[in-house]
Amino acid sequence: MPESLKTSTLTPAMNAFAKELPYGQRRTELLALIHSFETTDNDGRSIGWGASQASAFRNTSGLTSLSSWMERVFQESRVRSRRRMTMAYPLVVLGLAFAVFAFLGRIAITPFTELVRSFGVRIPTPTALLFDWNERVQMNFFTVVFVVIIVVGTLYAIVRFAGRRAIGSKYFGWLFRGDTASVSSMASFVGLLFDLLTNGTSLPDSLDLAGQGCGNEYYSMHARQLAVHLREQRGALSQCSASHAFPRNLIDALEPCGERPINLHFLHELSKIYGSRAVTRTQRDGSALGIFALFIVGCIVLFIVVSLFMPLVGLISGLA
Predict the structure, then answer these.
(1) Which of 79, 149, 211, 303 is the one with CA 20 to 30 A from 226?
(2) Could you report the per-residue pLDDT of 113-165, keeping only the tens digit for each?
(3) d(Cα 143, Cα 306) in Å, to the nearest integer?
């Protein structure tokens, strides 16, 4: 972190402010940020914290920058929490559906299985599958639960790893461009750029630090390439091959034209736009996954009802 950002003038005051907040997400997030700033020089969140503190320390208008930065941090925290809830909701619904299936299997499906087999009628394929699954679950209930937990945990770890490493953006950029994770990372990236440039940090250093702090390795890698391009004076940012990883309006805002400086106001507006888009995308994803989970549960219920009804039709037809 540049020396210009290593000011702790406001840290005690913000620490006291955080402790006055009621217990909850904002208090936890702010205390974690303060601890990060005090203990490390490389954490991306502490970079933005240092930039905002330095700006607030040097001029009165910086206090507004600090306030807006804190609000953006809280917004990013809300987005992360909503994304976790978005992933957890369908898992909870499917888990409850599995518990209900196991319960009904013991009190209803197992006696029904014995009843149907006692009549000696032909058992339809869907019904046979249902009976077989129920027997496996009842005989190996804890084993099945353990396997399900392992599978779900592995899938969750893969998704988290792919998100942090930005594997989708690196290798399938055309497919993952504009997804929720990318929009959220872009909001952090542009917001950090604004804080750093407002504080007087050079554009190459700002690109480097914002790339470290946005939490997306794809953007971090290309931001580092842009910084090298500027340091080596190879020409305009738009001439660098790494510029294709970022929106064109962002590159235009960072590129001075004649007497026109870097458009900081536009950067600030871009940060708010991407933040709003991240919130909207997260809400949309949560609704879509919730509907999908309910659809899966509905299909399972329909399959069970039809499977239990089919042998009754065969039994009635045989008696007739």
Answers:
(1) 79
(2) 888 888 777 888 889 999 998 888 888 888 888 988 898 888 878 877 776 66
(3) 28
The pLDDT tens digits for 79-123 are 777 777 777 788 888 888 888 888 888 888 888 888 888 877 788
Tokens 């990236």 sit on residue: 189
- Give the residues across from 106 on adjacent strands: none
Residue 29's identity, in one-letter code, is: E
Are 46 and 37 in contact, with CB atoms under 8 Å apart?
yes
β-bridge mates for residue 119, sequence order = none
Give residue 210's identity as a one-letter amino acid code.
A
Half-sphere exposure of residue 170: CA atoms within 13 angstroms, side-chain side: 11
Residues listed for the chain: 320
Nearest CA-CA partner of 219 in 176, 255, 269: 176
Q: What are phi and psi of 15, to 5 degrees?
A: -65, -45
List the alpha helices (DSSP H) in the chain.
11-20, 25-39, 44-58, 61-104, 110-119, 125-139, 141-165, 167-171, 173-176, 180-198, 203-213, 217-231, 248-254, 264-319
Q: What is the per-residue DSSP string for 204-262?
A: HHHHHHHHHHSS-HHHHHHHHHHHHHHHTT-S-GGGSGGGGGS-HHHHHHHS-BTTB--
* CA nearest neighbour of 209 among 8, 25, 43: 43
